[in-house]
Amino acid sequence: MKIAIDISQTVYGTGVSVYTKKLVENLLKIDTEDEYLLYGGSMRQIDGLRQIADSFRGNFTQKILPVPPSLADFIWNRLHVFPIEKLIGKIDVFHTSDWTEPPSDAYKITTVHDLYPFKFPRLVNLLVREVHKRKLSQRKKILY
What we know:
By secondary structure, the protein is an alpha/beta fold. The protein has two domains: 2-113; 114-144, no CATH class. The chain has helices at residues 15-30, 46-55, 69-79, 85-88, 116-119, 126-137, and strands spanning 2-6, 35-41, 60-65, 93-97, 107-111. The protein has a five-stranded parallel β-sheet, covered by helices on one side. Strand 2, helix 2 (46-55) and strand 3 (60-65) form a beta-alpha-beta unit. The longest helix has 16 residues, at 15-30. The protein is globular, with a radius of gyration of 15 Å. The two termini are 22 Å apart. 23% of the residues are buried. The model has no long low-confidence stretch (mean pLDDT 89).
């Protein structure tokens, strides 16, 4: 099986960054049967993203592309067009965080990292709350 993981957010030094790095590190350690493709998109952070991808050990390929996060958000989160396969090729599974989720024919796994805006809406900036609400409403299925 070919599994792609979006590692774009690993360059920001946040909890999401740490989670994604550890997820990739451990999957590559324990799964020697599946084929992994690490995808990342950035303009200003592209060198850092390449360094992070190069630091992983295991059987994987990488596609680090000059795709700015603002463009990815617009195309994938707002318009929901341009399947990820056009950039990275055919895949069976695509794992993303809740930052961007491109359309794909593959099975999709989305890790939602922050439900704080829904649990405590009065404590969160209105713009942040609206972005989270918009992104979550676009999910076709949520499986528990």
